[in-house]
Amino acid sequence: MSTSKLLALVSAALLSAMAVLFMFSKQSWEQETETLQLADSLITEECNEEFGIDLEGYHVEKGKIRNNQFLADILLPYGIDYGRIARVAEKSKKVFDIRKLNAGKNFTLICSEDSNYKADFFIYENSAIDYVVYDLRDTIDIYRGSRPVDLEEREATGVISHSLYQCLIDQDLSPALAMELADIYAWSIDFYRIQKEDHFKMVYTVKKVKEEVVGIDEIKAALFVHEEAPFYAFEFSQGDKEDYFDEDGNSLRKAFLQAPLKFSRMTSGYTQRRFHPVQKRWKAHLGTDYAAPSGTPIMTVGDGVISEARYKKFNGNYVKVRHNGTFTTQYLHMSKIASGIKPGTKVKQGQIIGYVGSTGLATGPHVCFRFWKHGKQVDHRREKIPPSEPIKSEYRDAYDAHLEKWRPRLDKLQLPGMGDDDLALEESN
């Protein structure tokens, strides 16, 4: 072999070796960088026990799931190889789908305190209360757990100046209470029509984990004064489940909800004469329009059977529900009809049947809600819908005692800015 050929072979070998070395170095550098980036999102903590695990002799790190981050991204830098991660994913299917790790959720790594910091446990926190434990030691074990929850009773009052939501914010109260009140009074108060000076009082409980409030538990008793009319709500169980009743023992639950959306604003009511914004002419508007952002869930106001679910030129995507031999409702201009909603489908009150949009003859996102009685369109806000079953006779004495406990407490709660003289005047009224 000539000297030139020998030199060429040696050069090629050296170049190949350098390329391989560069690839491994690059891979090592990238893995190290990824580890550093992961570490940047972690917080090291020291405590004795958490998630039912004795942390003596362990190193604990906490972080948040990042966008497009997978379980392998978290575990690889902590000594868990692809093969074991695959076994973890397979075993996890019966407990929790690891593909549903949500960005922003908290996680905890419990690692051995040797130089490798190998992960022995990975904990994914679904919420401030619930979590999933991945025991990554010799035999992989995956199970759900929950933190101990304490309940604390609180009181709240407020006077509406703009909206219920803003009123709660102004009083340093949780906006989640707005949804709770909307659910309780869904059959008796149209929250799209609440007025300035409407006001509320309530006693409720919050959930606390390690002295930190993590959510609303339930409202025990409430008073909402709407258009100067008082609406009481007292939580009470008749042996099967808890529900809300008024001061006379009537159920707040009725055959129909007041509106098909939880929160929005009414932009056009039932009228025999309205100037149509698209057709530019006067005509009857035999429905009620509720404006809301596109995609807002639309609920059926009562139990029933779907009679129509399709698209029409003027109605756009719409759903029609037959509730009984007397009442039928219709929901127009949906962006889309909910999955599974088709003629013949049985639906329950409050079930999502579609989403707000502006299909058909519409200028913006809203739902046009129509209400039929005996085949004739009527104004649902003027209909007197009978309530569900009231307090049973065998529970009447217990309910009266329940009222004696809660109603005076509600009545004595002071509204913001109200003094003792105002309170006495209010009670006399």
What does this structure look like?
The protein has 429 residues and is of the alpha+beta class. The protein has three domains: 40-146, Nuclear Transport Factor 2, Chain: A (Roll); 148-254 and 388-429, Nuclear Transport Factor 2, Chain: A (Roll), CATH 3.10.450.350; 265-382, Distorted Sandwich (Glucose Permease (Domain IIA)). The chain is 22% helix and 36% strand. It is built from seven helices and 25 strands. The strands form five sheets. Strands 14, 17, 18, 19, 20, 21, 22, 23, 24 and 25 form a ten-stranded antiparallel beta sheet that branches. Strands 1-4-5-6-7-8 form a six-stranded antiparallel beta sheet. A five-stranded antiparallel beta sheet has the order 9-10-11-12-13, sandwiched between helices. The chain is globular. Residues 13-37, 266-276, 278-284 and 420-425 have low confidence and may be disordered.
